[in-house]
Amino acid sequence: xxDVYTLPDDLPVPEDDGAADHLPGTVMPSLVLESSQxxxxxxxxxxxxxxxxxxxxxxxxxxxxxxxxGARGCTPQSCAFRDHAAELDELDATVAGLSAQTFEDQxxxxxxxHMPYPVIADPELRLRDALRLPTFEIAGHTLYKRLALVVRxxxxxxxxxxxxxxxxxxxxxxxWLTANPLG
Length: 183
Prior knowledge:
- The protein is an alpha/beta fold.
- The chain has one domain: Glutaredoxin (3-Layer(aba) Sandwich), CATH 3.40.30.
- The protein is built from 5 helices and 9 strands.
- Strand 4, helix 3 (103-113) and strand 5 form a beta-alpha-beta unit.
């Protein structure tokens, strides 16, 4: 079994394939989805980090998961945003995480890891369709590629893509917001 909280030293690095180049300046759509904290509108957040899928302790990952660049690291990425919640709050950032996982998976993950912000379920990939977000196929699943969006004035102001290493994404967002305040 794989430890979902620890990243291996030989984690493959994702390459920038240009699949998020169109996002800066794009209007963030109003899209209400279920989350661990009830229905939320993705347009209400200033930081939305998007990830493929989190793991559950004791359950095997999808076949080929660790070898696919950018797949592994969703739990460390999410826990890093949790651990930086106070700093993000001081920067007036409203944060949410989103994946293609089911509502039940998101609620379980948020409870187990004490997520202070909504963890959004988008199994129908509605945000992908609205923003043309990058996805990938693995073991019969279509999943989001990892990225983080910073939204200002209803438009995407900055995109972190590709995200690597995933456990540093929250610190990178904090650094960017410190240099580029939302207010």
